Amino acid sequence: MRPDTPADHADHTEHAAEAERLLRTAAQYPEDQEPLLLQAAAHLELSGDRSRAATLYDSLLAGTPERPYLVKALKAANLWEYGHEAEARAIIDGIRAAAPREAAPWEIIAEALESHDELQASHECFSTAVDLLIDPAEEVPYTAQSLLAGRHRVRRLLGLPHDEWDTQADIIHPGAIALDELHDPKRLWALGSDNPAELQAEIARLRAELGTYRTALSRPFPVAMLHWSEPELRELLTAYPTLASEYPSHDAHLTAIESALRDLASTGTLNLGIVTGTIPSYEAFAASEQSSPAEASLLPQYATTLAARGRAKPWPPARNSPCWCGSGVAYRGCHGAQQRA
Predict the structure, then answer these.
(1) N or C terminus: fewer CB in 10 A for the chain?
(2) What tens digit of pLDDT does each residue of 310-337 get?
(3) Whole-angstrom distance, CA of residue 155 vs CA of residue 147
(4) Can you give the pTM of this predicted structure?
């Protein structure tokens, strides 16, 4: 859920400073401007400067953003928080009518409605998104898992009985505390109890949840594998033949990416992604590091930098979605077939 708890003065200052750093980085890397400006806007919101955050959203929408519905959703949530409810509602209605095929805008507008006690409308948003984006016969995509959790939470607040999606939310929930307990409205009452035993039990639950959140926050960017398209890899190896030991062939390169990501997933590593490199970007990165692009040790650093600049695409894709390798074939019939093998 988007944080809206007021921060103290130190927090305000830190968030304002981070926003300024991101704005400078966006000016330095115009090709990555959109994700960097969205991060800057989030820090401006947390610093209390919501009007400036709204200006950033407007500047993105004045151009041709890659993810217009995400920007609109963030703008709506921000506007509602500082008194522009009518405009926020109009934007939310427009997003619902457009029915975007990505999870983030749906989650943001559903949580905005939830935070303003519009529980039935929030439930409708979550449910519509789940029906649009999740195939009951397929594995739930990582990017859509939070939709199930949010829907489960709102249904508990509404007092609705469990359905099949709630059961699926319980199955994929990674925390030690079950969703029914985590989303129990009575837990809020326990925080105001005079009974020491009840308070101690609630503190223990909150500590367990905090451990889960800390684990997620310790890795704000995806663990990303570096991917080269076939033409780019051919050009890379022509220019820097010493890297041939890293990339014996393009097919081997693609197979190694899928295998490495599956190995990481099998150990419980979350937030996995893939970044696609380009020669000009890689050479610019090497220059900024005062190193040679022929140095193989730069490759993982380059991947991490691209991920930090918002360039990572989540892995794995849905089984019926196009494969991450760019073949145009469904993931299940391309590199997703490695799982069956």
Answers:
(1) C
(2) 788 889 888 888 899 999 999 989 998 8
(3) 12
(4) 0.67
